[in-house]
Amino acid sequence: KKPFFPQELLLKIEAKFNKKIKTLQHGEITFEPQTNKVFKNSQEISLGEVQMALLKIFIKNIGQTIPKEVLFDCLEHPSETALRVALNKLKHITNWELTNIRSIGYKVEKS
């Protein structure tokens, strides 16, 4: 109904999309957006704040190159080294193949 507030509209749209996305899966990893729970081989695992933020970006964009600038936003102290360390941790936890697209960003390869 009109009138409506833009923030209310955004919340309703987000809620609608979140209901449709029950789980996202890639390889051994399953992510439940509503609860922010991550499972590896059906067992819940806990991730740090940075790894969780990176996982959310990558699992929603499988096969797409994510610019480094977007990934830097997940880091408290953004740097090339910090990003590589965070990505190596995520790679170790998820067993995903993370590919560096030179001077552009990173992507998770499709299975």
**End-to-end distance:** 44 Å
Q: Main sheet, how many strands, which sense, barrel?
A: 4 strands, antiparallel
What value does the average pLDDT take?
Answer: 87
Name the beta content range.
15-25%
The largest beta-sheet arranges its strands as 1-2-3-4
Poorly predicted ranges: none
Radius of gyration: 16 Å
Number of strands: 7
- Compressed to H and E, one letter per element, the order equals HEEEEHEHHEE
The number of distinct helices, counting runs of at least 4 residues, comes to 4
Q: Which oligomerization state do the chains in this entry correspond to?
A: single chain
Structural class: alpha+beta
Portion in helices: 40-55%
Shape: globular
Task: Report what the structure shows.
This protein is of the alpha+beta class and 111 residues long. 41% of the residues lie in helices and 22% in strands. It contains 4 helices and 7 strands. It has helices at 6-20, 49-59, 68-72, 80-94, and strands at residues 24-26, 29-32, 37-40, 43-45, 66-67, 98-101, 105-108. The strands form 2 sheets. A 4-stranded antiparallel sheet has the order 1-2-3-4, with no helix packed on it. A hairpin with a 2-residue loop joins strand 1 (24-26) and strand 2. Helix 2 (49-59) packs across helix 4. The chain starts with 5 loop residues before the first helix and ends with a strand. The mean pLDDT is 87.
Write a concise keyword list for the protein shown above.
single chain; 111 residues; alpha+beta; 3-stranded antiparallel sheet; globular
